[in-house]
Amino acid sequence: MVGAGFAALTAIRRLRRRLPAADITLAVFVPEFVYLPSLVRVPSGLRRGAELRHDLRPLLEALRLMPRAKRGFERHYLGSTLRAAR
User: Fold this and answer.
1) What is the CA radius of gyration of the chain?
2) Which end of the chain is more exposed for a tag (fewer CB within 10 A), N or C?
3) Domain range spanning residue 56?
4) How many structural domains are present in the chain?
């Protein structure tokens, strides 16, 4: 699984329920969830950037999943490239 957004976390939870023994890999640079829908409130001062970030390590541990880079892939998103060691 690449990324740690709503879709990835939902897919991981469903996979873990259906395939409890499956080896699931989450490829992310930082194991955190950024709640993007509230990002529009940062410029007005209603929210701070730090309030939108949530540490995913407790959830990942509960799902028996630790984040790590999968070898040999790239992901391009909004001008950024996620590259894993080959």
Assistant:
1) 15
2) C
3) 6-83
4) 1
